[in-house]
Amino acid sequence: QLQAFGGGSVQAGDSLRLSCGVSGRTESLYAMAWFRQAPGKEREFVASILWHPATTTYAPAVKGRFSIFRDFGPSILHLQMGSLKFEDSGIYYCASTTMRLRSVQDKTEYEFWGQGTQVTVSS
Fold this sequence. Notes:
Elements: E1 2-5, E2 8-11, E3 16-22, E4 31-37, E5 44-50, E6 56-58, E7 66-71, E8 76-81, E9 90-97, E10 112-113, E11 117-122
Parallel strand pairs: 2-11
Antiparallel strand pairs: 1-3, 3-8, 4-5, 4-9, 5-6, 7-8, 9-10, 9-11
């Protein structure tokens, strides 16, 4: 089960950290990721991390500004967002899978999803 939190309303240029609590057995996790969805748009890939080893991938739009990382004990996935832009606004979802992925950016390959947390960036 995934529980996302940390969203909010910020100004352009600000930073924000999203977190996603992971409950249940985590030793079988293969990867986790953050996706986002703006009104009227498709849910899009933001960043992913393989659980072991911690290999990360970023969407070009956020590379260099966002950082995905995980903590253990308890297991929590984070997304540190910096230099936020208006176009970063949307509902952010965390996702996980126990299966090996063909593409970390393909949302259909993730098995479990959190409920989403809203990020609003004012320009």
